[in-house]
Amino acid sequence: MKKCLFSLASLLLVGHLATAQKVEFEEYDLDNGLHVILHQDNTAPVVTTSVMYHVGAKDENPDRTGFAHFFEHLLFEGTENIERGEFMKIIPANGGKFNANTTDDRTYYYEVFPSNKVELGLWLESERLMHPVINQIGVDTQNEVVKEEKRMRVDNQPYGKFLEQVKVNLFKNHPYRWTTIGKMEHLDAATLEEFQAFNKKFYIPNNAVLIVAGDINKTEVKKMIKDYFGPIPKGTPIVRNLAKEAPITKEIKAKAYDSNIQIPAIIEAYRTPSYKDKDSYVLNMISQYLSGGKSSKLYKKLVDEKKMALQVGAMNISQEDYSAYIVFGLPLGETTLEALTKEIDEEIVKIQNNLISERDYQKLLNQFENQFVNSNSSVEGIANSLATYYLLYDDVNLINNEINIYRSITREDIQAVAKKYLNPNQRLLLEYLPEDKKQ
Question: Is the pLDDT of residue 115 over 50?
């Protein structure tokens, strides 16, 4: 009887997800190439205005890394119609909040306002695109801000440089080989003209998507968008011919040192496909299976039962061109990195040689169902998803349909993908060590 009740509950949950969570949206293009997506939700008097630009660290000159992230800061400096320093004062003064973030693939700016301030949000974002002031005082100011951010989040953070070491060893040709925050000496060496050229090339309407989500009147908002964004001229289309990576066929062994740590770490990193590839979704499920919570395989075995690790985890850092699948562990007590690697590899081999249990499989599906619901639980989250699915996945409907990809993944798929990508001869094995271990 319990099994029947469980099955009925599962069917009801799936039915609920298929209907109640559906996100309605409308999309169209302006003549200048700006893509617009509107989502109307009048349940709460809030609105998100956001713009995502298809520019990230991979679009930088190898000798000028950090530009994309730098612009995330620089474009809050001011515009021809907004005095320097006022951009970030106007928003909270009108009951709003704002933020921006950068990855290797894109840069995202957004504001959340009371719905009666939607026009203000559109004006601010149109100003950022149409009338930015890029001058030496702004560059110098934000240079110091970025340097302080790097000191706090990377240089002085324990294990803060591990991703930098993974990237430089995992990618030899593609621009994913450098970090998003870049090198400070590159920013110091850059001229004002180089910053202005970067802006002119990438901050154009035909390289962006505008999202307005929340308590809106679509007819009124469309007119505002036409008035504020319509006059912005179309830019020269961007052509990307990024370098390709040859497959890894022999294990890459490397060491890196960090003065901010006392406990070493072992890192296994595999180069895996784009997040648009179904295999990337399968790798997300494998990560959850291995280290998603205290009942996961790696945590339960190495932290809870054998007490060989202080921490252990697996994550699929998925990106537009390639992804990096990373498994890591911090040894406890006298455990060696070699012993920890052996135990981690045993769990991966189990996935390759045997189907995971039906119980674990159903647990995974439930976890991804829950993540899917949460991602669309606010207009702020919906705006981010709409922008991402359009700009990077080329399929806005994934906001409603992506969960079906996970539902289509079988236990056999999980086994096959583990066999395909997670092999010792296809990886980087990185020993991340305290500075005093350096010989």
Answer: yes
Span 265-285, pLDDT tens digits: 999 999 999 999 999 999 999
Q: Using one digit for the tens of pLDDT, what is the confidence trace for 54-89?
A: 999 999 999 999 999 999 999 999 999 999 999 999
The CATH number for 252-437, chosen from 1.10.540.10, 3.30.110.40, 3.40.140.20, 3.30.830.10, is 3.30.830.10
Count other Cβ atoms within 10 Å, centred on residue 260.
14
Distance separating alpha carbons of residues 124 and 111, to the nearest angstrom: 9
Q: What is the pTM of this model?
A: 0.93
pLDDT, position 6:
38
Number of H helices, E strands in the chain: 16, 11
pLDDT at 437: 74
- Name the DSSP letter for residue 103: -
| Residue 153: C-alpha distances to residues 146, 299, 329 (Å) | 10, 26, 21
Q: Closest Cα to residue 198, out of 212, 182, 216, 211? A: 182
Sorted by where each begins, the domain ranges of the chain are 23-229, 252-437
C-alpha Rg value of the chain to the nearest Å: 24
H-helix or E-strand spanning residue 194: helix 192-202
Q: How many residues does the chain have?
A: 439
CATH topology of domain 23-229: Cytochrome Bc1 Complex; Chain A, domain 1 (3.30.830)
Asked if the domains 23-229 and 252-437 are classified in one and the same CATH topology, the answer is yes
| CB atoms near residue 211 (< 10 Å) | 29
Residue with tokens 């209907």: 19
